[in-house]
Amino acid sequence: MKIKTVEFVKSSSKLEQCPPPDKYEYAFVGRSNVGKSSLINLLSGRKKIALTSGNPGKTKLINHFIVNKAWYLVDLPGYGYAKVSKKERVVFDQLIKNYLLERPNLTCLFLLIDSRHEPLGPDIEFINWLGENGVPFVIVFTKIDKLPKTKIEPTLDKYKKFLLTQWEELPTIFKTSSANQLGKEDILTFIEQTNIQLSSQ
Ligand SMILES: Nc1nc2c(ncn2[C@@H]2O[C@H](COP(=O)(O)OP(=O)(O)OP(=O)(O)O)[C@@H](O)[C@H]2O)c(=O)[nH]1
Ligand SMILES: [Mg+2]
User: Fold this and answer.
1) Exposed (0-12), middle (13-18) or buried (19+): which is 23, by Cβ within 10 Å?
2) 115 Cβ closer than 6 Å to some ligand 1 atom
3) Which atom number of ligand 1 is nearest to the Cα of residue 75?
4) At 65, which CATH number?
5) Residue 1 included in any domain
6) Is the CB of residue 171 less than 8 Å from the CB of residue 139?
7) Mean pLDDT (the chain, rounded)
8) Could you tell me the residue range of the domain that residue 149 belongs to?
């Protein structure tokens, strides 16, 4: 898909503040620092449309971007970030979960996982929560450039095997590197095909 325009729409601290739910919407979620904002920049072809940082906890609100004046990309805060106060973490986690359960136009959620990590408690809990609540999602393994080439497939295979101990089927999986521009076309094609499929129904 060709990206002609990407515009920042607004930041919302509550579901009620989000733009009217009248367009297909793709949201990006995952632990703090996993690379959500960087991936949005990669897909947008704009280096700084979403703010990134080496320090976890950068994105604190629900950020809407509109692509080709037709559909939304949504950058969410990270979950499970240990360094904020417990109270603040609960507020973030509730903001994310409320958004995921109540946003009527959420078309697909991209759950980002750092490809270097073994299955981590917060990610697995989150995946299970998505399943229990029927939130449609795909998995994105990020920061692939940080793994030696020979380790990429064995590491991801191990993760998939683990998921299959809990689930009958694997979700759609993408591999990305915002540093090396990997995975951009695959994700944009997926979004384009999903939009076409839904609008022909
Ligand atoms: N090497 C490498 N670094 C990456 C990649 N993606 C993100 N980073 C780096 O990881 C750090 C965090 O990236 P962000 O995109 O801000 O992460 P985030 O998930 O939005 O983080 P929060 O908003 O804090 O939840 C930054 O220093 C990025 O430059 C990648 O694919 N490869
Ligand atoms: Mg961010």
Assistant:
1) middle
2) no
3) 20
4) 3.40.50.300
5) no
6) yes
7) 93
8) 6-199
Q: Do 54 and 5 contact (CB within 8 A), yes or no?
A: no
Q: Is residue 102 part of a domain?
A: yes
Q: What is the pTM of this model?
A: 0.95
Mutate to test the pocket of ligand 1, among 76, 178, 181, 182 (most ligand atoms within 8 A of CB): 178
Q: Could you tell me if 147 and 63 are in contact, meaning their C-beta atoms sit under 8 angstroms apart?
A: no
186 confidence band (pLDDT: 50, 70, 90): very high
Residue range 109-120, pLDDT digits in tens: 999 999 999 888
45 located within any domain: yes
Contact 72, 19 (CB under 8 A): yes
Place of tokens 């969410």: 76
What letter would DSSP give residue 114? E
**Residue with the nearest Cα to atom 32 of ligand 1?**
143
Q: Indicate if ligand 1 lies below 6 Å from the C-beta of 183.
A: no
Number of folded domains that form the chain: 1
Going by pLDDT thresholds of 50, 70 and 90, the confidence category of residue 28 is very high
Q: What is the pLDDT of residue 82?
A: 59
User: For the segment 67-104, what is each residue's pLDDT rounded down to a tens digit?
Assistant: 999 999 999 988 876 567 777 777 778 889 999 999 99
